[in-house]
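Target protein
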Amino acid sequence: MKRISRIILVSFAIATLTLMSCGSKDQVLEKGTAIESTKAAVDAITSDKKANEGKRFTIEGYLNYTPLHRVYTNRYQTVHVNSEPNKKGEWIGDISMKWGENEKNKVFVTETTGETFFYDNEGKSLTNNDKVSISFSVSEDETYPIDIRIDKL
């Protein structure tokens, strides 16, 4: 009887920990430490991912995204960051954003018009003409910065 009680208790504990560790759709992403919004500053962070993993950084700029002929919506999308709207100014770098319509910190392109929408940390729609604050982290497993948080300036 003691053994059965122990098995039930352990099973309950494992189930509880599993449920608590699962990420939610609206994961809270914190703002990062502001760095210079230049390609050199972003490259310095991404070139030493091991030392910077787990840290959050923030840059400012304008987002732009041009999908290829086929979009894999279950993968990260490579979004470009420039110092000026409409792909003008200095190219600051690339970030990896998840795909989603009307979801926080996601990118989406309509099938009918091909218009690109970005969604900020509150789920509000933005375009490539909106200046934003971009908070991110880096991982040795990913090419570009991830865990993106977008805030309109």
Summary: The first strand starts at residue 33 and ends at 34.
